[in-house]
Amino acid sequence: MRKNTYLCRMKIANIELPDRAVMLAPMEDVTDVGFRLQCRHFGADMVYSEFVSADALIRSIDKTMRKLNVLDEERPVVIQIYGRDVASMVEAAKIVEQARPDIIDINFGCPVKRVAGKGAGAGLLQNVPLMLEITRAVVDAVKIPVTCKTRLGWDCEHKIIVGLAEQLQDCGISALAIHGRTRSQMYNGEADWTLIREVKQNPRMHIPIIGNGDVTSAEIARQRFEETGVDAIMIGRATFGRPWIFREVKHLLTTGEPLPPIPLDECILALKHQVEESVARIGEYRGILHIRRHLAATPVFKGISNFRDTRIAMLRAETVGELYEIMDRAAEMARKSQLAQLA
Length: 343
What we know:
Blueprint: E1 9-12, E2 15-18, E3 21-24, H1 33-41, E4 46-53, H2 54-58, H3 62-66, E5 77-82, H4 86-98, E6 103-108, H5 113-116, H6 128-141, E7 146-151, H7 161-170, E8 176-179, H8 194-201, E9 209-212, H9 218-228, E10 232-235, H10 245-255, H11 264-282, H12 284-297, H13 307-316, H14 320-342
Parallel strand pairs: 3-4, 3-10, 4-5, 5-6, 6-7, 7-8, 8-9, 9-10
Antiparallel strand pairs: 1-2
């Protein structure tokens, strides 16, 4: 068992990261700058932006342009772009480069219909020549590192990732992230890491390989590193309402021991900080709407009596004061539940 992963380093181009790095996966309407900062605070080694549409960037759509906001405190940070043709992706990459992220990532994995159905994201798994042409053109167009994120293939009959990984590497990318599902699976079923392992063990691959899919605990993270040998992992949906999962994972990886439970008060403060940041950025009503998925998913309140009613009340709250009152009541119930279990 390696006790201190920081003695060894991995590199994505010129960017140095800890051995067995743990990253925040890119997620639309989730990985805004405020949440990225939270995850960095709790130990994420690198964070990714929301998906950024190449077409919207070229048209200078305000909402999209705001996604390019990068703070020095969150570095290293990656801005991820998606599109379906070479010219727009090259122009978008040049615009993104001016925002000074550490890396530009190309999204070849988003499975949703409005993206993949239009030939972008995972849709390009059905047009590999165009995928490779886009990748080569973007790599050549910018001076900062370019990486890609994709899936195993379009469907279970076309799991092409092992050969595709070599082709993408030949295009000049600096790292490759792989989600262990096909596009047809969307987010259903279990992520399959066997092909991710095969890519990593391919002697012709020399760029870092990042695994993604169903990493929901520190122990699962450790298992994925040990079973596949990947250079890094990404955590996505398991961060909802739980940005401290990065502290849990890093502690287990660096010490070999599970992290003691994070104090309830620290968890509540972290959730309230997310609320405050969201409200400050986009206003009270929209800010609360934006943060609801985190409050619905957080494990902090689970196990208290009538949690369903509490969850519904949080989702219906329309003011910060109302929301905090519900959260404080729920926290007190959770505190009493913890004490009862210890008695």
